[in-house]
Amino acid sequence: MHKKRKNAPSLLKRYKNSLPNTLLMKNFTLTTIRKAGNAALKLFGKSFKVKYKNYQDVVTSADIASEKVLISAIRKAYPTHSILSEEAGKISSSSSYCWYLDPLDGTNNFFMGLPLWGVSMALYKENTPLAGASYFPLQNELYYAEKGKGAFLNGKRIRVSKKKDTRSSLLVFDDPRALDSFRTKEGDIKEFADKFFAVRVLGSACYTHALLAKGTIDACFHPKLKPGDFAAGKILIEEAGGRIEDVERNETQMERSVRFLATNGKLHAKIKRMLK
User: Kind and range of the H or E element at 200?
Assistant: First the structure.
């Protein structure tokens, strides 16, 4: 008969500060992002503090409230991991694991009372995404993806669209102001956009990426995104069968902004040729 080991570590203690691909990490991510999103939701449509970064960019008390929830939870559950967040910046450690956070993506939408905003968080080991989530409280939509395990919306598997022709495809841009001097092989941005069935601007990168992952839209292009803006979207789209890359370098480095193209995969080569 085997003797019971004394003081054997529980599963929680064993996995608490190690990494992932575990049910514990998934539950942690989903629980934490819901709490952060609900913290922002409490302020939506109500009076909140606003700080202007410039006359077209603001940070609200909802950004700060959501960020506090995210950072506090990560530092408690994974104290050895680094964090890069939209407002707090880089909280470094010697770990090769880093959480990329956007506590309130679509802040200007939130500020103006528009419903397209959400929270995103993703865990990377160096430049490799391991898991990511995006939560949209007003729509009650929680997206989650884990490396090699697929992408899900409220627990149901999602996949990108199967469209192959730009003339039947929906393209989303990030911010038209960033495209004023944008040129492509097709000419200016209007000539480029005319190659698609429809073009939209939503004001939220993480919502755009979620729509691409579930097949509602077929492609998106952002002239400049920071790591926190695309970290969760990258793994969501890839696990849903899509393709993402920095079209200038053919790879994605997590420590800098990128010129970001994401598609359902079937349209990728064609759109990339149009951009260059």
Answer: strand 198-201
